[in-house]
Design brief:
Largest sheet: none
Number of helices: 5
Radius of gyration: 22 Å
Low-confidence stretches: none
Strand content: under 5%
Distance between the termini: 52 Å
Helix content: 55-70%
Number of domains: 2
Shape: flat
Number of strands: 0
């Protein structure tokens, strides 16, 4: 199963032979893109791809974890317009904490996800509606 982003199946103006040729070119192009990304990644970073994906996930999924936890464990209403600010500040703050932590003798690993989630959680608590 695949996604037909060029809508080849519904096109009546292209012969079936041309459609097959288009699919081959598209597959070749996508393979070249993936191969290029791998080469670029290999030249930039010496760590494993999976390890780097988990590092990036720590920064991207942290706000999701924080918002999910906040909604699950509290009934507090927040100011909706400020939520995007909190979820942008959270990974930026986590990144800076991650960068300066080796100077204090600690290296964050995958627990950056938890730190990011906690920052988001407390950021949402700060922007709550005060009753």
């Amino acid at each position: 199963m695949s996604v037909d982003i060029f809508n080849l199946e519904s096109r009546q103006d292209i012969s079936s032979q041309k459609k097959i040729l288009w699919r081959k070119y598209i597959n070749l192009g996508m393979s070249a893109i993936v191969f290029s990304v791998i080469l670029i990644f290999n030249s930039i970073n010496k760590d494993s791809v999976i390890n780097e994906l988990f590092k990036v996930a720590g920064f991207t999924y942290g706000p999701l974890l924080g918002m999910f936890s906040f909604g699950l464990f509290s009934k507090i209403k927040v100011k909706s317009k400020l939520i995007p600010i909190v979820v942008i500040i959270s990974p930026v703050l986590s990144y800076f904490i991650n960068q300066i932590s080796p100077a204090y003798g600690y290296h964050f690993g995958f627990e950056i996800l938890l730190l990011n989630g906690l920052i988001t959680y407390f950021g949402l608590w700060i922007i709550r509606h005060k009753e």
